[in-house]
Design goal:
- There is one protein chain.
- By secondary structure, the protein is of the alpha/beta class.
- It has 13 helices and 15 strands.
- Strands 1, 2, 3, 4, 5, 6, 7 and 13 form an 8-stranded mixed beta sheet that branches.
Length: 327
């Protein structure tokens, strides 16, 4: 059973069987080019310099975006205007609405929001996706947890870990692996980053990695990369081999923990909104730095049954430090 929790958006997504990488990036049949009726979140009249573009979707996705926007409102120095982006409409309508509302900066959430923001000429922050193209040229906070946080939790849980192995698509996640190399060195770890550009090669890599992994020193990281971490193919391989070989595996997906992964870090939507607001304040104040940041605003989940199975002695104090505990 998991401990009672209050962060509904993250749990709603897990119950909908969606990985964090996909949670804010649902399938769409049409190019997103416009918006539904806009929602003014603060101040019914007057300029609203911060515009938040997000996909116009039902639950559980809408709750995620609502929580992020609430966090932005809490910390923004400017009035905030939310625009639920809908498909099949005129992009000129968006530009007109933004201009009419006195917009000075756009926060684009999810793939639909990012696509819509590409057609307007405002400073833009991106979020609620796990990765973006040209990460060095974008600004924002992505849903991929900071490797420094992941490795810190790993060392606390499994102090004997000496090597972390990850399989990733370099076309999408090279920016994250650069950060992971630095974080590994800081935590006294060796990072083995193996490239796979399609699911078939990723599956072969997982089979090979688990066959040669040493449970006394190795851990496997499942990144939020849908090329290499597939719920129907590679995740079952990882879960089976981790259990059979007593190898720690960690992730950024709550459902993975429920199914047997040792631990995961998942988004804290409200605090993510706080950080986006701080970034927006800095940008409007002329203090912005280009580049995307990994997620540090997280909830934590732990599987105690898995911990016991692989021989870890997790004390009550450490277990209580996690937001969600499966036993």
């Amino acid at each position: 059973m998991s401990r009672a929790i209050r962060f509904s958006g993250a749990i709603a997504l897990a119950l909908a069987c969606l990985s964090p990488a996909r949670a804010a990036d649902p399938p769409a049949k049409h190019e997103v080019v416009l918006l539904a009726q806009s929602e003014s979140r603060r101040h019914a009249s007057g300029p609203e310099p911060v515009a938040v573009l997000y996909p116009d979707l039902g639950e559980p996705w809408r709750r995620v975006f609502t929580e992020i926007i609430e966090g932005i409102e809490d910390q923004s120095r400017q009035a905030v205007h939310g625009y639920p982006v809908a498909p099949n409409a005129d992009p000129a309508e968006l530009s007109s609405s933004l201009k009419r509302n006195g917009t000075r900066l756009v926060i684009a959430l999810g793939r639909q929001g990012i696509r819509a923001a590409a057609g307007v000429e405002y400073p833009t922050l991106v979020s609620a996706v796990s990765t973006v193209n040209d990460a060095d040229k974008q600004t924002g906070i992505l849903l991929a947890p900071d490797p420094a946080l992941l490795f810190s939790y790993l060392k606390n849980l499994v102090p004997g870990t000496r090597r972390v192995i990850v399989i990733y698509n370099p076309g999408q996640f090279e920016w994250l692996i650069r950060l992971a190399r630095e974080a590994a060195r800081a935590n006294g770890l060796e990072l083995v980053a193996l490239e796979a550009r399609d699911l078939a090669s990723a599956a072969r890599q997982y089979e090979s990695v688990f066959a040669s992994a040493d449970p006394r020193r190795d851990a496997i990281w499942l990144p939020p990369d849908t090329t290499t971490v597939d719920e129907a193919t590679t995740v079952p391989i990882a879960l089976r081999e981790a259990w059979n070989r007593n190898i720690p595996v960690f992730s950024s997906n709550l459902l993975h923990v429920k199914r047997g992964v040792l631990f995961a870090l998942i988004p804290d939507n409200l605090k993510l909104g706080h950080s986006l607001a701080a970034m927006a304040n800095a940008t409007l104040g002329g203090e912005a730095k280009r580049g995307v940041l990994p997620l540090r605003e997280v909830h934590t989940a732990l599987n105690m049954r898995t911990a016991g199975h692989i021989g870890l002695n997790i004390g009550q104090k450490l277990a209580r430090s996690f937001d969600i505990v499966y036993s």
